[in-house]
Amino acid sequence: MIKYLKMFLSAFLMLATFVHAEAQQKKEKDTADAEALKKYDKLLEEGTLTKGIFNVIQIKQDYYFEIPDSLMGRSFLIVNKISKVPLPLNEAGLNKGMEFENKVITFQKDTIHNKVWVRTLKPMVSSPADDAITRSVQNNFSSSIVESFDIVSINKKSPSIVIKVNKVFNGKEKSFNDVFNNTGLGGTAKTSLSYIEKIKAFPENIMVKSELTTSVSEGGASIPITIGIACNIVVLPETPMQPRFLDKRVGYFSKKRWYFNDGQHAMEERELITRWRLEPRAEDVEDYMKGKLVTPRKPIVFYIDPATPEKWRSYIKQGVFDWQQAFEKAGFKNAVIAKEPAEDDPDFDIDDVRYSVITYAASPKANAMGPSVVDPRSGEILEADIIWWHNVMTSLHSWMRIQTGAIDEKARGNVFDDQHMGAAIQFVSSHEVGHTFGLKHNMGASYAFEVDSLRSRSFTRKMGGTAPSIMDYARYNYVAQPEDNVVAITPQIGVYDKYAIEWGYKWFKNDIEEKTYLKELITRHSNDPLYFYGEQQDYKNTIDPRSQSEDLGNDAVLASTYGVKNLKRVLENVETWTYEEGDTYYKTGKLYMGIIGQWQLYNNHVLNNVGGVYLNHVVHGDTSNAYEPVPYQKQFEAVQYLNQNVFTLPEWLFVNEVIAKTYPLKDSPLGPYEYSPYTLSRELQYSVFYALFKDERLLRLMESELYRNSRDKVFSVKNLFEQVRNHVFHKTIQGKSLSYFERMAQKNYVDVLIVDINKLFVKTNTKSLQIPASLQIPTICNHVVNSDVSARNINYTSIKRVSEVTTVKKGELYILLELLKKKKNKGALETRMHYIDLIDRIEKVINN
User: What range(s) does the DUF5118 domain occupy (predicted)?
Assistant: First the structure.
């Protein structure tokens, strides 16, 4: 009995001790909470409070975020933008409004360590919540900690916690923005010369403006650099937008997404297109489903930067409003709006991520761009900023003068009237705004038009300019001749653009309706060239000649022939159009160089047909082929054009009266740079030879011949060499003397072959051999960045040294050597000396 009594007393004492300890802990916690509340009240007494998604408390130079517990674990997007730049960065092309680093973060409250952890995650992986594999997904795609903050106070009334945030905005830490590394400057901020300028709090975002300073060494000298930063922290929608998956037959920017589930045999990889969340209001859904136009619940609104010169604002706004007709195809009216901010709006700030702004940048750069801020979980475009460089007008002036001066009197002077320039600004505005809707360049759109149709006044007026898409680089109508009286010469929003907007923005109640409608929409237009989408390609390695930048029509040879006729007309008037009493010939030289550049552009458009392959996005059930060689006749005519317009040097372009007054010139950091016509002509001709006989091009010709359809005549490597050789060495074959430019063409041709062969045999030991990137095993962080260039990666070049390319190039040199030895004593002295030189060059490379 005593034994049990002792056990009872022992248990009672243990319970009493536990209760006392628990009470003591509660007392200590209540005391700590009271102290924290007291400290919170003291913070408010000493500082100022700004309410927003996070309350911001400022005490002198210290800033605190009060983060509600309800937002712990919510996804936020950090959006970093340039707010101010000094001259050296402006010259380098870095300007206000440009984004440099975005990341998704979450805040995690940790009362044990008295900290708030900031985690980042690339949200590109999904799996069903109830599937077993989701546990593995969570462990294999976990978030990373990028920052931590001590909890300095607690507000139990909210409830929320308070953290001091100076270090992530004043340059001490790089976790929230690493501006110097992300803009290529490198280094770290000098904290003594960096500071937080101000913090603004709004219902859905916080905006922090800072000035960060570093120094950059240029040739030994140290240059101070201070960059203004606008860091926005915006809460992402609690329910992400319903994504729409990419179909490569319609050109949209996209975000990759990986999907896992228990029923798979392999992970599914898909791409989400980037687009705004356009939805009908609840009360309008029934009307929308009946096909009536409705105003979206939240229209897309662009604000015009108050720094924009007033005379251009209406044209830029009209470039936005022009897209309303396209969104009507998706069932929405007044879906996109442009307006100027109210002068008395104290909250408006163009650096605020709540506003989509067309930012006007005072800069010597001639460009425009239309980036967007995207929710990576769904592809939803949250905000867009078009950067409009002031000097983009210099490019517009040059394009219009060179491409349309022959047919449009308004496009000839050193200065255009405001209305003519304004129309050009409207076109560029529409193009860049198109990018902010998610549309990529459609470089294949212009191929839909017959070249001679571009000379038709009625056709161009009906179709609206130069291509069925304003997202092409179709520029201006250089095909139309003066006698055609064509007036619709500027690109406009076309049928492809309306089709693409319909495909991307039409709203559906459910996935099944969406998939059915979109599939039928593409199928209905799949064989219509007006709806063709052609991806942008690397201009140095263009495979599909239908999708080229700045070309017009479906026949590059015919279009370029018309273009050259107009260039001759412009050159004949180059001095008259640039004349200013007492002025130098600087503007004349600039226009002269622009004419030469346009001629070279035509050359490239033509030569890309040689060895070209039409790349078609096919799906099961299509009757078309994925790879179709350019037809024989087109390739033959392309080489014929190059023979006549490049390899026979156009003396009208390089031997004329203009060079008595000025050489062609370009601007450089040291001032105007003048090019002697002979040197420039030699280099440009050489570049065409080199591009024409590139290994990749020859390999594509061989590939086409190897897999040809027996019914089709295929343009071969043999055809190419014979056609060029017979032209370039025509007078040699006849035993005649050669002119200066004919000798130049032969040297260029031979040297291209020699250089390529030497490259193949510079070093062939095993250390120099590398596996092509496309065949390497993927490594950590070997992520592919979404780009608007070279979306199709086709390998034609692996192990070129043992391909037929070496054989045919060497074989061509042997043919030339035999010809030259046979004709070495024919012609004038200069011609014979030239032959001796070529023989010596060829023998050295062959013997070596």
Answer: 38-85
Pairing of strands 336-339, 300-304: parallel
Alpha-carbon distance of 452 to 436, in angstroms, equals 33
Q: Which of 372-386, 708-722, 805-819 comes out lowest in average pLDDT?
A: 708-722
The pair of three-digit structure tokens given for residue 557, joined into one six-digit string: 């040879």
Within 10 angstroms of residue 29's Cβ, the number of other Cβ atoms is 10
Give the span between the Cα atoms of 335 and 340, in whole angstroms. Answer: 17
**212 and 134: one domain?**
yes
Same domain membership, residue 27 and residue 69? no
Average pLDDT of the chain to the nearest whole number: 90
Global pTM value: 0.90
d(CA 479, CA 403): 8
Evaluate whether residue 76 is within a structural domain: yes
Question: Degrees (nearest 5) of the Cα angle 793, 799, 802?
Answer: 140
341: Cβ contacts below 8 Å, ≥ 6 apart: 303, 304, 306, 348, 355
CA distance 454 to 476: 11
User: Do 13 and 80 sit in the same domain of this protein?
Assistant: no
Decide the pairing of beta strands 76-84 and 221-235: antiparallel
Burial status of residue 259 (CB atoms within 10 A of its CB: 0-12, 13-18, 19 or more):
middle
* Residue 454 included in any domain: no
725 contact partners, CB below 8 Å, separation of at least 6: 749, 812, 815, 816
Residue type, position 319, single letter: G
Q: Say if residues 100 and 80 touch (Cβ distance below 8 Å).
A: yes
**Residue in this structure with the two tokens 């030289």, named with its chain if needed:** 589
Q: CB 810: neighbour CB atoms within 10 A?
A: 16
Residue with tokens 């001749």: 481
In which region does residue 465 sit, left (phi positive, over 0), alpha (psi from -120 to 50) or beta (all else)? Answer: left
The number of CA neighbours under 13 Å toward the Cβ of 735 is 4
Mark which of 170, 205, 235 sits at the end of a domain.
235
H/E stretch holding 312 reads helix 310-321
DSSP single-letter state for residue 237: P
Considering the domain architecture, whether residues 22 and 56 belong to the same structural domain is answered as no
Statement to judge: residues 106 and 185 lie in one domain: yes
Sign of CA dihedral 820, 825, 831, 833: positive
User: Which residues constitute the domain of residue 159?
Assistant: 47-235
440, 252 Cβ separation under 8 angstroms: yes
Distances, alpha carbon 778 to alpha carbons 258, 264, 536, in Å: 16, 22, 26
* Any domain includes 113: yes
Domain count for the chain, please give it. 2
Sheet holding 125-126, edge to edge: 125-126, 254-259, 268-273
Same domain, 54 and 27: no
CA dist., res. 731 & res. 725, Å (int): 11
DSSP state of 379: T
Which DSSP symbol is given to 509? S
In this structure, which amino acid lies at residue 670?
L
- Residue with tokens 């592809």, as numbered in its chain: 379
Q: Which of 616, 645, 97, 3 is nearest to 384 (CA)?
A: 97
pLDDT tens per residue, range 508-561: 999 999 999 999 999 999 999 999 999 999 888 899 999 999 999 999 999 999
Same domain membership, residue 228 and residue 88: yes
H-only helix segments in 671-780 = 677-692, 695-706, 717-728, 730-734, 740-760
Does residue 608 surpass a pLDDT of 50?
Answer: yes
Residue 146 is assigned to a structural domain of this protein: yes
- Note whether 198 and 154 are same-domain residues: yes
